[in-house]
Specification:
276 residues, alpha/beta, 16% strand, globular, binds glyceraldehyde-3-phosphate, binds zinc ion
Length: 276
């Protein structure tokens, strides 16, 4: 068993406490490979920002959870090399689907996990979330969970329902009391993926305000890609502490990779190759 502290990582507790005090949110980026990790850490160090590194189901299948965990450990050292004396980096399981997945991440050094039972009936969602909380808290690992379901644009592996099921504030309050979670993911109108031209997200800031008034745990916004900066800022002003971003950085990575390969069709055979 590996504890996240031995990897130089932190959990979300102090990070969110500072964010709430300072009125800002923490960026949570999904990563699948080394190049994305390099960019995330460079940006975090440059902007002196704490950062949450997230591993999704797709990333676990594609890149292997063990390799990704070692990369997060390496990220702490990398941030120090770039000049950050005390990196604040969380390694988080994104959209964990079962207790077993969460447990295996807790045991292998993740400092935060999400158990996503949002598709389950309320009682079942509470039961599985509670079980994860009990196990995670023994190792001081933070737990995020969701009620209501964010939408999908149809182009994201994280999925979501076709229409958003907005979180009901009173239910959110009850769910947090029933489960003892550390952070709560609310559905207020965003969707996973990049919005197609004919799809306009309808963010319900009124619902968010209601949730903020009724609960005291930090709130998470899923589906942060391709929303306007003003929408994100408005959400942060009204209680969001963590912004999940996956598709935006994937798109940036693929666009640049295509551009570089198109501009340099013989890259492997020239002196520009990275290992020359
Ligand atoms: O859990 C991950 C996210 O909610 C990311 O969504 O691909 O729309 O940025 P996104
Ligand atoms: Zn999500």
């Amino acid at each position: 068993m590996v504890n996240y502290k031995d990897l130089g990582l932190v959990n979300t507790r102090d990070m969110f406490a500072k964010a709430i005090k300072g009125g800002y949110a923490i960026p949570a980026f999904n990563f699948n490979n080394m190049e994305q990790m390099q960019a995330i850490i460079k940006a975090a160090v440059e902007t002196k920002s704490p950062v949450i590194l997230q591993v999704s189901k797709g990333a676990r299948q594609y890149a292997n959870a063990t390799l990704l965990r070692y990369m997060a450990q390496g990220a702490v050292e990398y941030a120090k090399e770039l000049g950050c004396a005390k990196p604040e980096i969380v390694l988080h399981l994104d959209h964990g689907d079962t207790f077993e997945t969460c447990k295996s991440c807790i045991d292998s050094g993740f400092s935060s996990v999400m158990i996503d039972g949002s598709h389950l009936p309320y009682e079942e969602n509470v039961a599985v979330t509670k079980k994860v909380v009990e196990t995670a808290h023994i190792a001081n690992v933070s737990v995020e969970s969701e009620l209501g379901t964010i939408g999908t644009t149809g182009n994201s592996i994280e999925g979501g329902t076709e229409g958003v099921i907005y979180t009901v504030p009173e239910e959110a309050k009850q769910f947090i009391e029933d489960t003892g979670i550390d952070t709560f993911a609310c559905a207020i109108g965003t969707a996973h993926g990049i919005y197609p031209k004919d799809m306009k997200p309808k963010l319900r800031i009124d619902i968010l305000k209601d949730i903020t008034d009724q609960v005291s745990v930090p709130l998470v916004l899923h589906g942060g890609s391709s929303n306007k900066d003003e929408e994100i800022a408005e959400a942060v002003k009204n209680g969001i502490c963590k912004i999940n971003i996956s598709s935006d950085i994937k798109v940036a990575f693929y666009e640049q990779a295509r551009k570089t390969l198109n501009e340099n069709p013989c890259l492997l055979y020239t002196s520009d190759a990275a290992d020359d």
